[in-house]
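Researcher: I'm preparing a figure for a lab meeting and need a structural model of a single chain. I don't have an experimental structure, so a prediction will have to do for now. The sequence is pasted below. Please return the structure as tokens so I can convert it later.
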Amino acid sequence: MIPGVRRSAAVGLPVFVARGMRRLGRVEDLILDAAGGRVIGLLLAGSGPGGTRRVVPWEVVAQIGPSAVLVRRDVAIAVPAAHRRRLGELALRHRRRLGLRVIDGAGVDRGTIDDLVFDAATGRVLGFSVSAGLFADLARGQAFLSAKTPVEWGEEAALVRDWPQAPVRETGAGGRLPGE
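Model: Understood. Here is the structure written out token by token.
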């Protein structure tokens, strides 16, 4: 089984401080480290005074559930408008890969990267779900492309030379990853 949370499942969730259940906001996106291998924060929707953006550091995230994110402390770091561009780059890092075609070493189109999957306990990026299309996903489930799989990333496609031997696993029926 592949434990993990899809980015799309986390986006839109309300964020509450566990003690007192005060709402901090709603998850707009994930912030990844420069290498793209770990979630380092949750970008909250909306902006504060002067165009500031707010980020909840990963270290205070206690739980990401199906209905809400719980944090240990009331911490939402204000990022001034002057740093918004860098913040946007970190948020966009993983979104650039969404929608890329996955081609194997034999030139076979294996589908489209449609979501990022991460470990809810550590924030580590586990990989990507790959869709072969609605009907194929319903019939067979989506494929999972592990972050450990060697991939040559391009602007329009990703090359996975050893697709059959790579750690790629079928997800459950309906395209849901186990643990969702």
